[in-house]
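Record pair follows.
FIRST:
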Amino acid sequence: MATLGIITCEILELEFAHLLANDTDVSRITVVDTGFGHGFIRAVEQQKGYKPRLVDYIGKYLPAQPERFEVLVQVMELGLHTVIKNLRAGVTNAALEMGPHVNAIMIGYGLCGNALQNHEEILKEADVPIFMPIDEDHPVDDCVGLIIGGRTNYYQEQCNVAGTFFMNAGFSRHWKDLLHKAHGVKFDEAISKRIMAGYERSLLLTTPVLSEEEMAANIEEFNQIYELRTEVRAGTLEILEKTWAKGKQFVISNTPSG
């Protein structure tokens, strides 16, 4: 078996689709059909020209060619971070289920409000190496920290404009669902306007996975509701790509050749 598992959020569906679709070492992509991977599946299909294989649950996964590099992906529901214990439990349970079927697991999350602080301890029962996006000597803070290029850049933009709503590709696509999640029910616009009263701008973090024009169009209604201006900063996939490369190299180098 030569399989790298990936556990991530809908927010990063395009970034992971981009990674996998552009890596010629990947011989097959299998997705656990949890109902939250549709965006990832569509993005892979658009870029590679075929649909990833689907399995109803992780236990049904079997590598097609054990000596070739494959990826098993589980996309988690967005908004789990609104309740820290839910995010920690969700990622932990997914890792425990995935562990027996893969050689290593890449976690497509950051600390996310410290839900995944001490992730090596939390996920040790998965009994496989865990690869998490690292910013210098610590995990990235969250998906914004990942795409903006780390804590220093994150803090710099917060200092530039304290009232900044950071928009990576996933936030631009899913902001309505995230607001609904944050309120537990369909959000009340009047209440949310009071909560957002201190915000001044939406900061688009652009990467190759979605054009600036598409991102701007996605948040036009958001900016109108909260009376925000749009500003742009180039994002980066560097941290994600480094984590992917480490996980892939571990799996490949620890798989006996045919």
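SECOND:
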Amino acid sequence: MGQDAGDVARRLLTGEIAAGARAIRWLDDRDPRGPALLAAVYPHTGRAQIVGITGPPGAGKSTLTDMLVAEWRSRGMRVAVLAVDPSSPFTGGAILGDRVRMARHALDPGVFIRSLGTRGQAGGLSRSTHDAALVFDAMGYDIVVVETVGVGQDEIDVVNLAHTTIIVAVPGLGDEIQAVKAGIMEAGDIFVVNKADRDGYDATRRQMEMMLHLRAQSRPAQPETPVLRSVAARGEGGAEIVEAIAAHRTRLEGAGDFARRNGLRARAQVINLVKDALTARALELGGDAIFDAVDARRIDPHGAAEHLLRQLDERIIAA
């Protein structure tokens, strides 16, 4: 396959797997051909429903995703999965555990599974997750699943990416309480209690429903948020979850929110790209000297930041 961005973009728009894989590699590696390719395919995006799946480690997110992929495929839908894995501290690469757990879909031409390493990115998402989701959208996938590495105190960035966010909990670990601390309860569109065959399922479900009831009091106009049951390891609950996801898309489209969420996601990506570019340029201008000055207590961090911003302003004016 050719190395030209335009050629890869044309192949990608026909749904060619190799072209999609190469595009995501370019974008993840910050190859200069990546932005050129994305510019060519961007007008063909905006159709796929992006479904974020997040929850604490051990909740069975990968097994749940595997079950949902099988359910979507049984309905004739094409599905792409972005599994955001922790990066190796030595190589920077993804561990790829999710691809192993979804191996039964590896030979299905209607499924594309791609792991991305977080590369130290906070928020549970890889730095290039947004771009990869656009690639899958342009390739014509109906559903793009983004599975995060797990929920922590601040790891809710998937909400900014997804049309529909699924929060996965599991009985017996107190995860629902932790989710409240992280603000996840405010973000979820669908809640799933996985491993529901375990002791404590009823108590976990009641606690989640109670907290969602409290949330609903501050959102009287919002529809009721579903709390669903699943035992993903046995394939139980997939149909109900897929139907709830489809119903959520219907509600979003009816209210004009599907396109609005696309716009908010694009705006967030623009801001992030500008932040990254300005930070790189400011650090290039300041070099190590500014950090040495902070270390030596000759200037405080706020003053150092102001100094770098002034240098940027002067560079812009001079240009």
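COMMENT: Residues 87-97 have pLDDT under 50 and may be disordered.
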